[in-house]
Amino acid sequence: MTEVGAELPQEDAVEVDAVRVLLIEDDEVDQMAFERLVRREALPYDYAIVGTLGDAQEAVAEQRFDLVISDYHLPDGTAMDLFAAGWTLPIIVITGAGGEEIAVQAMRAGAYDYLIKDLERKYLKILPITVENALKKSRAEHELLLLSHAVATINEAIFIADPSGEVLYVNDAFSRTYGYSRQEILGRDRRLLWAGGSELEVVGEGGAHEQVECLHQRNDGSTFPVLVSRSNLPLLGGRAMAEVGVVWDITQRKRSEMALRESEERYALAARGANDGLWDWDLRTGEIFFSARWKHMMGYSEAEVGSSPEDWFRLVHPEDLNLLKAQVEAHLDGRTPHFENEHRIRHRSGEYRWMLSRGLAVRGRNSQAYRMAGSQTDITERKQAEQQLVHDALHDALTGLPNRALFLDR
């Protein structure tokens, strides 16, 4: 019960803006006293007054109210009937004779507070603070209800354990993830979830919060990798700390990481074992990756060739450069299905060697190329063989002089 004469604690004051109040009071004098209080104190109440439970039911059906103030004794029943009808609005009960006993009954039934009438109506002096406290309690309960509902329906498994590790709470997702019912897990040590009893790796820390990757164990004995986000929150009294854990099953992520790692290993092995040089051009940054084999084909070490297109083009024979650039541009513009060009590149020794370069662009949704990768093959011996065949066909094998075929061609 809120005592007569109590003052509103300033540090806890909550501004009440246009509070919708329903007063259920059959005594006209008490009705007028309430209205005088609202006007005199300039209380921000948008109120309605009814004299019976039936009228109150109609008012609630037609309008929205934040709070109900009800006299206990009414012409068609008592305030207890409001609780029996399942009203969820915060209700303050006002009692007269026998008030203490009735007030206790009302509080047990679900009243947020109660006031006891007196002949001088001093109870009205503390009515505003009583209303404010009831609203604060109602809002807190509503927020707690929403939070509880969110925790219960979230897809991630959640557990709360006391400082000794004893599980105090789990949500429905926890039961689905681990195969334990609430009855089976509550009161048991949370460490039974850890496969082998040990954690694997702390991946993030921040004060009372940390993230741990571990191998967890279900009720049936099967194991799976998880990411556990753990926070410490004070229990009632503030001395002991409870551990709140949110668990994500990262099985699919680990599989993806493994597949990516295997793919990268395959690519690295292929790049090292291939006879051809490989290149990968990021068109967004303008950087090109040249494999070690690509550089060694021209006699250069890895540090002697940079990562820009010019580091490639400056090695190309001047007579071949324009055609190479034109064919690269044609493919990037989408005018050719793939890129292919034969050109000469200057070896570190100063000689030129013939290279066959092939590539393919990767395009986004707008068909704009953002990446181009390919290979480079040394075809110097093939070019020399082709030139030798042409020479042999046009020259005498014995003397080396031009033959009839070259004479007719010229």
Rg (C-alpha, Å): 42 Å
Q: What is the SS-derived class? A: alpha+beta
Largest sheet: 6 strands, antiparallel
Shape by Cα distribution? elongated
User: Order of strands across the widest beta sheet?
Assistant: 9-8-13-12-11-10
The count of strands amounts to 18
In short:
By secondary structure, this protein is an alpha+beta fold. 36% of the residues lie in helices and 28% in strands.
Structure description:
This protein is α+β, with helices and mostly antiparallel strands and 410 residues long. The chain is built from 13 helices and 18 strands. The protein has helices at residues 28-40, 53-62, 80-84, 99-109, 127-153, 172-178, 182-185, 251-273, 292-296, 309-313, 318-332, 380-394, 404-409; strands spanning 19-24, 45-50, 67-71, 73-74, 77-78, 91-95, 113-116, 157-161, 167-170, 201-206, 209-217, 223-234, 241-249, 277-282, 287-290, 339-346, 352-363, 369-378. It has a six-stranded antiparallel sheet with strand order 9-8-13-12-11-10. A five-stranded parallel sheet has the order 2-1-3-6-7, with helices on both faces. Strand 8 and strand 9 (167-170) form a beta hairpin. The longest helix is centred in the middle third of the chain and has 27 residues, at 127-153. The protein is elongated and about 140 Å long. Residues 1-16 have low confidence and may be disordered.
Entry keywords:
six-stranded antiparallel beta sheet; alpha+beta; 13 helices; elongated; five-stranded parallel beta sheet; disordered N terminus; single chain; 410 residues
Question: Can you lay out the helices and strands and say which pair or pack?
Answer:
Elements: E1 19-24, H1 28-40, E2 45-50, H2 53-62, E3 67-71, E4 73-74, E5 77-78, H3 80-84, E6 91-95, H4 99-109, E7 113-116, H5 127-153, E8 157-161, E9 167-170, H6 172-178, H7 182-185, E10 201-206, E11 209-217, E12 223-234, E13 241-249, H8 251-273, E14 277-282, E15 287-290, H9 292-296, H10 309-313, H11 318-332, E16 339-346, E17 352-363, E18 369-378, H12 380-394, H13 404-409
Parallel strand pairs: 1-2, 1-3, 3-6, 6-7
Antiparallel strand pairs: 4-5, 8-9, 8-13, 10-11, 11-12, 12-13, 14-15, 14-18, 16-17, 17-18
